[in-house]
Amino acid sequence: MKPPPPEALPGGAGLWRPVAAARGGGWATAAALLLVVVSHLAALLVRRRLRRGGRIAQPEAVAAAPAPASASPGSASELEGLVTEDDLRQLVGSLGVGAREPETEGWEHVISKGNDDVSYRVWCDKPTAGPPKYLSITTYERCSTEQLRDFYMDNEYRMEWDKTVTKHEQLQYDENSGVEVGRTIKKFPLLTPREYILAWRVWEANDKSFYCFIKECEHPLAVRQKKFVRVRLLRSGWCIRKIPGRDACQITVLHHEDNGMNIEMAKLAFSKGIWNYICKMNNALRRYPQHRSPSVSILTMQRLTKKFPQDLEAAMNASLPASQTTAATVVPSTRTSPCKLPGKKSSRQMIASGLLLVGSIVCLSRGRSNLGAQLAMALFLKKAFKQERESGSSTSRGKTNVTRSRR
């Protein structure tokens, strides 16, 4: 199935259309910006008070079990055609080729960080039009492939640790084909919530490796709502395998998504926040064994998981030594990047960060800003965030020195 053309993707002229040049337009823009800043700061203050009281609200989880294919409007044959073995073969080819030497195949290196528990490397492929594709390799120490698979597929648990996911519901599944369809709502700061209608399928190989392919789809039970922006392009797949000779496993992810966000703003947000997100994910993974009994997502996945095709596995085993050796030798950089615990910010820092965030979104999302202006704003934001981190680290060092001097 060919992906939709860029002009049909959400977030075009309707979401980031330029502001009309008219008399008084500047005052209207300033008033709207001020309203957004005030509302954003008010929400932050409310959340801080709720956290102090220990009564922060949790997103509503869906307790109902997913409907089988016979009880839902979509037929089993329609579900079977959403994710096929052809998708799996294409995924295996992409991961097997691209994960070995990404730089030699045109992938641009983004970041490479790691610590004693997790290491993360990611590359980016920028097409001539549309959002970039990302290829990432994450290694988790002291973790089995089964635990990492369950963690990634547990949508109910994700709503507890990933605050961008506000709701998830399983719409339908088919035990014959192993295809499952679900609906997820994600909320990003200052943006309309995004709605994901996705179909996925999981395969298990003989060596306890797992493969999953996810793609966008439509479903009769998911009626379009004006309060959400439906994501029309998402192609994602991953492979979880054990690293030979080590108590560790590795997940290789190939992800391509257009959620309607300004491309430059999305790339900047990714590069600035992805490592903190990986650290947060790692912390949630370590707590996962103490989690409650298996959720609906895990119970359904265990019934639907299919065996990896034997002919494809035989073809992979024939060329496995080189790829396995390369996968096992993917190590983080020698300089570790520990996961920092979030510290408290002063009201002045909150206001400055809020103004910087809103101003950057407005400047980068205006349709009339040219490439030079967007690049200048991106460089300004990079420098500003760097200065903020340096000031924060110097402040913490100063507090440490004062404490030591008092002792």
Write the layout of secondary structure elements.
Elements: H1 25-53, E1 67-68, H2 76-80, H3 85-98, E2 108-114, E3 118-125, E4 133-141, H4 145-153, H5 155-161, E5 165-174, E6 179-186, E7 194-204, E8 210-216, E9 229-230, E10 233-242, E11 248-258, H6 263-287, H7 296-304, E12 306-307, H8 310-318, H9 320-328, H10 347-365, H11 371-406
Parallel strand pairs: 1-5, 7-9, 7-12
Antiparallel strand pairs: 2-3, 3-4, 4-11, 5-6, 6-7, 7-8, 8-10, 10-11
What's the quick description here?
The protein has a domain at 67-328: Alpha-D-Glucose-1,6-Bisphosphate, Chain A, domain 4, CATH 3.30.530. The chain is 42% helix and 21% strand. It contains 11 helices and 12 strands.
Give a verbal description of the structure:
This protein has about 400 residues and is of the alpha+beta class. The chain has a domain of about 260 residues: START domain (Alpha-D-Glucose-1,6-Bisphosphate, Chain A, domain 4). About 40% of the residues lie in helices and about 20% in strands. Strands 1, 2, 3, 4, 5, 6, 7, 8, 9, 10, 11 and 12 form a 12-stranded mixed β-sheet that branches. A hairpin with a 5-residue loop joins strand 10 and strand 11. The longest helix has about 35 residues. It starts with about 25 loop residues before the first helix and ends with a helix. Keywords: Membrane, Transmembrane, Transmembrane helix.
